[in-house]
Design goal:
The protein is 7% helix and 44% strand. The protein has 248 residues and is mainly beta. It has a domain of 153 residues. Strands 3, 4, 6, 7, 9, 10, 11 and 12 form an eight-stranded antiparallel beta sheet that branches. Strand 10 and strand 11 form a beta hairpin.
């Protein structure tokens, strides 16, 4: 049974008005979901917990929880020419004004919906968002940290076991992700569309073919930079009508 998909804080979900060459368009629904494994791929763990297990070169990694702080998710239209105030450039119109928000990634097969908004029909070529490190210098971040004190200056928190020893890995990675949609996301009038952001957790701690202890990626650790780079490269996005977590 799928577990509930948890969003710990939603400060606001809005949509900037946008007009293309042909003027105003009719809004349609777009859902944004997250996935870490496609359906049809069985869980490797025998612990009875929802988890993601890797066994490489005699090392065994079991991930039991992955939480990521995100903000400012937006869809970029391929045909946009003018945007309302707040758009940074001509192809940046449809913004999910959220954040910071804590996303608990699903570890079981398939995609789970996180949120949705109405967007005009059209063709969208990219989804952008920030992996965000909350800082007490920003009012929205202050409210978030008050509710989630473990995430002060922490953008990602992973827990599990490495060779049967419990670990906690945190990072202050703070970076904008720009994911090209191939093929483009086609949003039709009055039609509900699902966009899945897929995160390949199997690449995070696999460095040069070696499965490393996640604690070595903590602040100042020997694998901090390599794991942060792997995290940045592990995201992709695609239309996923059946929320299978796969673009096949």
């Amino acid at each position: 049974m799928k577990r509930a998909f948890v969003m710990a804080l939603l400060l606001g979900l809005g949509l900037g008005a946008c007009q293309g060459v042909g003027g105003p368009t009719t809004a349609s629904s777009v859902q944004v979901s997250f996935a870490t494994r496609p359906t049809g791929v069985p869980l490797a763990s025998q612990t009875g917990m929802v988890s993601d297990t890797q066994m490489v070169g005699g090392n065994t990694l079991i991930i039991t929880k992955v939480e990521i702080v995100l903000r400012e998710i937006e869809l970029r239209r391929v045909d946009a020419t003018t945007c309302a105030a707040g758009g940074e450039d001509d192809d940046s119109c449809e913004e999910f004004a959220i954040g910071p928000v804590l996303v608990d990634l699903p570890l079981d097969p398939g995609a789970e919906q996180a949120f949705q908004a109405d967007v005009p029909e059209g063709t969208y070529t990219r989804v952008d968002f920030e992996i965000h490190k909350p800082d007490d210098g920003d009012p929205a971040d202050q409210a978030f940290i008050q509710q989630h004190p473990d995430f002060e200056k922490v953008s990602i928190r992973v827990t599990g076991t490495f060779n049967d020893t419990a670990f906690v890995h945190t990072t202050d990675l703070d970076v904008e992700q720009q994911l090209t949609l191939l093929p483009n996301l086609m949003v039709s009038e009055g039609v509900s569309t699902n966009l899945t952001i897929f995160v390949d957790l199997s690449t995070w701690y696999l460095i040069g073919g070696v499965l490393v202890n996640p604690t070595t990626a903590n602040k100042g650790g020997t694998n901090e930079s390599e794991v942060n780079n792997a995290i940045k490269d592990s995201f992709r996005a695609f239309e996923d009508p059946d929320r299978s977590g796969s673009d096949d």
